[in-house]
Design a protein that fits this description.
This protein folds into 4 domains: 181 residues, Lyase, Ornithine Decarboxylase, Chain A, domain 1 (Beta Barrel); 236 residues, TIM Barrel (Alpha-Beta Barrel), CATH 3.20.20; 78 residues, Methane Monooxygenase Hydroxylase, Chain G, domain 1, CATH 1.20.58; 47 residues. It is built from 21 helices and 21 strands. Strand 10, helix 10 and strand 11 form a beta-alpha-beta unit. Helix 13 runs parallel beside helix 15 and helix 14 runs antiparallel to helix 15. The two termini are 33 Å apart. The structure holds pyridoxal-5'-phosphate. Pyridoxal-5'-phosphate binds next to helix 12.
């Protein structure tokens, strides 16, 4: 029931409440049955059905779900949006996307991008030797590889050999000191290098990652350094090798105006480098294409005020205008979109283990000889109006604290104190209800709703699976994946399983700005309650850590079929307890031996039988091979 209208609650109301159409990018929807669905190929699959498939396969929660079709669809949308912007602007060169491996290095993800991306000539961007090795072994010759980051001799040799094999492999010079190594190695191996140059942009962008731009950016060459590099290359008769200009304004840039300003500045650099004699053929605009996590289409850090199409049109149109004015030929446009390509495809799924509510247990009926403070507390509710609400709020704390002080001094007994705490909570809930009817919440009561919110304990580790929530207060859409045809009547914050006070989520996307609590359903006895954290495909998986020794979660990749069915295409079993213990230098075999010895001594002392010892050792071993998270016995 909808408590306000007394009409049955509709799934559509849940869709509005959680904003699924605002952030779902047409990849997630809600069925009439109240289930969140993943959508591609004109079909929909309920996530609870996928969860059921996991349970049947004994894949325990938490699970990171990857929907491969969504990854494919994002690459397709990106490439097609650029093609269409290029056609509209009559731009004469093509678009080449490269995927920056650092955004999600997992083999399943990179392999899928390499494989599906083939039809769009999608390449890879690498920033280290391990990533270079990934690129060289997942792509076929002909594809584009952009090498950023500090490069030593070994890195450069790998890249030069890649050119010999037929890859389009660019070294982007980030600091002047890289140039002599590139020149020396390419001479030694007798291979002409393909050189890119990273410019330091002055254009400042808003958003969390804005420090990659501006004077103090740690990346890129200043105007004077650019001139030095050009002069050195000319001197070495290698200016024809300088074929790519690179710039990167930052990640998750929320404002299209900032992007346009960046492109204008970059285009000027491009024109002048061409005038200097560089044989430029490619311009690389880096990353920055944002994801609308909060779904509010604004300049907020967790959002963006533009569509994918507008982004592409801005890059292509702005560049073309500058070049045409200066009669400079159009280069191939490269972008390194990472976040926007992979964010949508992953969902973290977990079950709720328990809840704590902050409500009176109801045991506070008036007694004949009770402490008079209790009657005073009750009275506050009776006389509560929106006019005296602030005063009532003060009073309820005053009387409650007097009871607590009395308890400390031995004048109030435990039963009286419990009654007082109960009435106190009742009054606070009444005050909170009254606040809902007011246009403006008095400042002193801003934290009330949060202090009354339920705590839902989720079977996951924030530090392992959602590190950006902890590190940079990132917002992700979070919602139940079923029961959405029921009204969510509780307001909750979410605590993870680490028992760390930082392991909580109390910031959620809202209609216009973030909310401190999330509407959820009360738990039903004997039934699991599943939540999904959406859009978590970018930056979360390898940034996570082993806090409290909760390890990698199970990972399942599914592929949706046109007929509405789905296949489990890849699965990865999460860390076992033995795995995480060995990461911190314990030797699982040694641990078992030492436990065996302890049990053997207990046998010698007559505390347990040999049979009991064997049972214990069996349980110990099973535990070592088990999942680090809360396991349900099937
Ligand atoms: C991190 C990074 C990217 C990816 O940026 P997104 O905003 O995730 O698309 C691209 N290029 C470079 C050089 C980067 O450092």
């Amino acid at each position: 029931m909808d408590q306000k209208t007394n009409q049955p609650w509709q799934a559509k109301q849940s869709a509005d409440l959680y904003g699924i159409e605002r952030w779902g990018n047409d990849y997630f929807g809600l069925s009439d049955a109240g289930h969140v669905t993943a959508k591609t190929l004109n079909t929909e699959v309920a996530l609870v059905d996928i969860v059921k498939g996991m349970v049947d396969r004994d894949l325990q929660m938490p699970v990171l779900l990857r929907v491969e079709n969504i990854l494919d669809a994002q690459i397709q949308r990106l490439s097609e949006a650029f093609s269409s912007a290029i056609a509209t602007a009559s731009y004469t060169q093509s678009y080449r996307g490269v995927y920056p491996i650092k955004v999600n290095q997992q083999a399943q993800v990179v392999e899928e991008i390499a494989d599906f991306g083939k039809r769009y000539h999608h390449g890879l961007e690498v920033g280290s030797k391990p990533e270079m090795i990934i690129a060289l072994s997942s792509l076929e010759p002909g594809r584009l590889i952009i090498c950023n980051g500090y490069k030593d001799e070994e890195f450069i040799e790998l890249g030069l050999q890649a050119i010999k094999l037929g890859f389009e492999c660019f070294f982007v010079i980030e600091t002047p000191s890289e140039l002599p190594i590139i020149i020396e190695r390419s001479r030694a191996l007798n291979i002409r290098p393909m050189i890119g140059i990273r410019i330091k942009m002055i254009s400042q962008v808003s958003g969390h990652w804005n420090s990659t731009s501006g004077d103090r950016s740690i990346f890129g060459l200043t105007a004077t350094q650019l001139i030095d590099v050009v002069d050195s290359l000319r001197q070495e008769e290698m200016l024809d090798c300088l074929q790519l200009m690179h710039c990167h304004l930052g990640s998750q840039i929320p404002s299209l105006e900032d992007i346009r300003n960046g492109v204008i500045e970059a285009s000027r650099y491009y024109v002048d480098l061409v005038r200097e004699g560089a044989a430029l053929t490619h311009i690389d605009f880096g990353g920055g294409l944002a994801v609308d996590y909060s779904g509010i289409q604004s300049e907020d850090n967790h959002s963006r005020n533009y569509s994918l199409e507008e982004y592409c049109e801005t890059l292509v149109g702005t560049l073309k205008q500058t070049l045409d004015n200066e009669s400079v030929a159009h280069p191939v446009i490269v972008t390194e979109s990472g976040r926007a390509v992979v964010a949508y495809a992953s969902v973290l799924l977990f079950n709720i283990l328990d809840t704590t509510t902050f409500e009176s247990s109801g045991k506070s009926l008036a007694q004949a000889d009770e402490n008079p403070l209790l009657a005073k507390l009750r009275n506050i509710s009776t006389h509560l109006t929106t006019d005296n609400i602030e005063q009532s709020y003060e009073q309820v704390h005053l009387y409650r604290n007097q009871i607590r002080d009395g308890f400390k001094a031995g004048q109030v007994d435990l039963r009286c104190r419990a009654s007082a705490e109960n009435i106190f909570l009742d009054v606070l809930h009444n005050i909170a209800d009254a606040l809902d009817t007011m246009d403006q919440i008095p400042e002193s009561m801003a934290g009330l709703k949060l202090s009354l919110a339920d705590i839902y304990y989720g079977n996951f580790s924030l530090f392992q699976s959602l590190p950006d929530i902890w590190a940079i207060d990132q917002l992700f859409p979070i919602m139940p994946i079923h029961r959405l045809d029921e009204e969510p009547t509780r307001q909750a914050v979410i605590a993870d399983i680490t028992c760390d006070c930082d392991g909580k989520i109390d910031n959620f996307i809202g209609l216009t700005e973030p909310e401190k609590t999330l509407p959820l359903h009360p738990l039903k006895v004997g039934e699991e309650y599943y939540l999904g954290v959406f859009l978590v495909g970018a930056y979360q998986e390898t940034l996570g850590d082993l806090h409290n020794l909760f390890g990698d979660t199970n990972v399942v990749s599914v592929r949706l079929n046109r007929d509405g069915s789905f296949d489990f295409v890849k699965e990865m079993i999460g860390d076992t307890i033995a795995d995480v213990l060995s990461y911190v230098e314990y030797e699982p075999k040694q641990l078992e031996l030492s436990y065996r010895n302890t049990a053997e001594r207990a046998v010698q002392q007559g505390r347990i039988s040999v049979a009991e010892r064997q049972q214990m050792i069996k349980a110990f071993r099973a535990s070592m091979q088990g999942y680090t998270y809360y396991e349900r016995e099937n």
